[in-house]
Amino acid sequence: MQIKVKDFIDQVVDGDFISSEMQTPIEDLDSAIKQSVSDFQTSVAQNKLSQQIILVQGFNEEIRIRLESGIINLPFANINRVDNFFDELEAQVPLNLYLIVEAADLNQSKFRIDEVSSVSQVIDDPAQTAKHVIEMVNQQIDQLQANVKQAEEKD
Q: Which residues form a coiled coil (predicted)?
């Protein structure tokens, strides 16, 4: 699936995307991710951009996970910088799924964004996409736990 750079920017700026937010205990995170991928798939199959937000509870700090449609590894919140990376705003570019994880002890920037797959792959195989997202999130939570443990040992 492709989109014009200008159309992507305009839709995000105008809030013309489907967004939902859920809270989940850390023990139910895999199920929440599967639901978010399913909701993402439903949105993009209707040719809408999507933003799915999961607020994870039960960890010693807030963890915010987002799945967003994107054309470059910048979140919707940084839409004003997207056009800096493209020479031609009328160009057709691939639309992808990005995973964004935010937590105070994740890294120095408290933020990580990774490309998961193309939106076409999400539409074609949401189960595989959900599995991949779960693996990616678990890696970030492992890193977060290691960082917290390391910080506690320093104290």
A: 127-154
